[in-house]
Amino acid sequence: MSKTSHLTFDLDKPGTSRGHLFVAKGADCEALSLPVISLNKGGGPRLLITAGSHGNELEGPIVARRLVDWLPEAQTCGRVIIVPVLNPQAVQAWSRNTPIDGLNLNRVFPGRADGSVTERIADAVSRLLLPMVDIVFDLHSGGPRWQFAPASTTHPIADADLMRKTLRMAEAFKLPLTLAWEGPDTRGMFDTFVQSQGKVFVCPELGGGSVDAAALTIAEVGIRNALIALGIVKGEAEYPTFRQQKSSRTVETLESDELKSPASGIFEPRCSVLDEVKPGDLIGILHPMDPWSSSALEIRSHTTSIVCAVKSTLHVDENEVVAILPRPLDL
Amino acid sequence: MSKTSHLTFDLDKPGTSRGHLFVAKGADCEALSLPVISLNKGGGPRLLITAGSHGNELEGPIVARRLVDWLPEAQTCGRVIIVPVLNPQAVQAWSRNTPIDGLNLNRVFPGRADGSVTERIADAVSRLLLPMVDIVFDLHSGGPRWQFAPASTTHPIADADLMRKTLRMAEAFKLPLTLAWEGPDTRGMFDTFVQSQGKVFVCPELGGGSVDAAALTIAEVGIRNALIALGIVKGEAEYPTFRQQKSSRTVETLESDELKSPASGIFEPRCSVLDEVKPGDLIGILHPMDPWSSSALEIRSHTTSIVCAVKSTLHVDENEVVAILPRPLDL
Questions:
Q1: Across the interface, which of A145, A210, A313 has its CB nearest the CB of B147?
Q2: Residues contacting B330, CB < 8 A, separation 6+
Q3: What pTM was computed for the model?
Q4: How far from chain centre, in Å, is Cα A43?
């Protein structure tokens, strides 16, 4: 068998096939075998669902595994390829980045066949899976450091037509928020690489903080809604229930909508995701490390918004983002 | 000023004094200055409250800071020394252990004046603060890796009289659980070092997973109850409300009460802390890293119990503890 990265099975085979994406060994570690399932019901949308890119965002891997239980039966057309865990070493370490090379898998796309392990994973996905599909859902969450509203997100895309298509796809999840997110540095993201090929990429952020049953249910309903919108499964889309509410709104975040900490210290959130806030409302308290040299600071909203994300209780540096307070988006 | 570890102020001064515990510099890093507050109202119990030993258990530091706001006014007698953050480097890194030397502060007591930074902190606490008190509350929590019921805990103590006194002090918190916890290896714990001096040591575990306002309120009520029981403040002790219930029970955990994972994989909890469980009840699901080579495993209770702690959603190894299912304790 080839020692270069390859798929252990034929994705073109009709029906359900299980196998692995073999990621070649390198100077830093042995080869990896990432479990892959291919659900091929012929013509129709061609979709890749990936999860576990960041090893401490485990909502995605669990929901991807659940999909494998019901989607083969429910699927009526098209192709769905599912990779529940893109970065097994990061998952084992419960860390955002890969422990061996310290790299963020979502910043090294399209990767390098002769690079370190994170780059080799990105390369195998870019060359062996991405050409098979037109749409990608890459499942993320806030991880333990962020409380994040269930949201399907995209970054702004220069191509207006692709931006519209992406936003419509994101809205089809019917999660409480659809978010267009202006990031400071999107180089090497899976998102931008897929979009550079004219394909639709949606990044669902499936909660954050502790992973609970309610968050997993919301995530699963959202993905089912998107599959219904694509015509891959039949059924009625339904808003998932989040805190007794069934609703959805589309927002955007500019960099100026990020609320930053005025100093370093222990941040204590005083709001929850999806809280409606006005200018002056309390978002959190910053406890300086030395309370005898400076007193606790109240961090307040500078805008009218709905809380998309707020940092967990942890130490933050001066100017570190502690909350994301988006604005309505009309496209 | 002395370059060896010392207190920057006189703990014997009457009234409220603020200063620092200076921890000498070593080969690995510069000196540290840990904020300390001394509340001295003369005769009565002599109590040390510490927090932030593990840098990702931040309930304690926040509650310790809140105490500083109201305790000086409420205190009627005795002495209380509060150190809100014992291990500032671990807090800054949001890590259990100190990043510089990789050591667990709660496993290196009594420490070493010429050791690495974690050992130097333990040494300064052991030599400079501990002789001033008869009772220690060291505030911990489950951290992000564990959902932990609000509990005041102790390890079993060979001295039956000290064990009884410790358990009575722990029960005075009136938290939902009082737990005597048989640990596999308690060498170097702050607990055992304090107890070896015949002093009372209680370790409140103030929740776990995401830190929320409800957990902080419960923690603060628990500590106030303990201060009332000691006669340091006046008032009525009250059970804190946890999930609409006001109750408290005393339990113990033998090593055989720890539920272990049958294999390695992603653990998904399916129960909550303080759930009542019977043999066969579902505690969690273990998703193996390669679902094509082995299927998901249900992890079930082997006993009738109340869930004291359950692991967060994360990767666990074979035989790693995923839940603590204690039994009633009568002493």
A1: A210
A2: none
A3: 0.94
A4: 27
